[in-house]
Amino acid sequence: MSLPFYIVDVFAEKKYAGNQLAVFLDAENLSSAEMQTIAREINFAESTFVTKLDLENNSAEIKIFTPGQEMKFAGHPLIGTSWVLIHKIYKNIPDNITLQVPIGAIPIHKTDELIWLTAAQPEFWDVFAKEDFLAFSNLQSGDFNDQFPIQEVTTGSAFVMVPLKSAAALENLVLDRDKMNTWLHANCRTSHHGLYFYCLEDSSIKSRLFYIEHNQLLEDAATGSASTCLQASLLKYKAPEIDLINYQGDYMKRPSQIHFKGKLTNDHFDIKIGGKAQFVAKGEWEA
């Protein structure tokens, strides 16, 4: 079986930045196990598989896989897959499409070079003490920004939001893999979990996402799903309207820009993240 595929860099201002994504088309006859094997082979943070394509209504069903597991929702795969469908597959470069993922339908909108997604309503879970993090990191008690809670938040995928006071603390962050892994399994509610450290600076944010997969401590270059959780947290605890850029990936030499545009009105969260995608390659995959 031969599958057409595209590679794009997502949340990237230029090629070879942002987060890599492989998008596989015509994947309706693949099993989930086969998709997982392909995702492990290509070994990007995530790969997507288009299992149903509706050309008339500009919609598609997709499945998302990391090298280790399937995801119910993930931001950079949705942005990157949307860019491929809008620019390479659908006719007339539509401004609006819909992607169906396990948590439901995700509306996608294009404005100029940016692709935007609208996230599901967030849930705010457990709040944690900063002392927990002193046991598996080089952070000191004074490094945390006490204006915001350390809290697990989900909009379909869950992450622990960890606010820091300074970019220096973020840049110099060191984590103990084994102790961190023990803490994640003891405290997080889902099987896919990560720590999203961030520093708020005026009209922008700097961030880093760490997680453990296949017993390795990994960093992600641009995490759209965690960004929707962070935006939800800022809307709840900082201001009811947000318009700024989240800079991630700088410390791993894959700079990324994730645009935030959100509003909280009468307990309803309107969470939008946007970014650019850069076309890198296309080809045929022999499955």
From TrEMBL:
Pfam family, one: PhzC-PhzF
Entry's Gene Ontology molecular function annotations: isomerase activity
InterPro entries: Phenazine_PhzF-like (IPR003719)
Active site annotation, chain numbering: 46
A single GO cellular-component term on record: cytoplasm
PANTHER family in the cross-refs: ANTISENSE-ENHANCING SEQUENCE 1, PHENAZINE BIOSYNTHESIS PROTEIN
Family of this protein: Belongs to the PhzF family.
Protein name: Phenazine biosynthesis protein PhzF
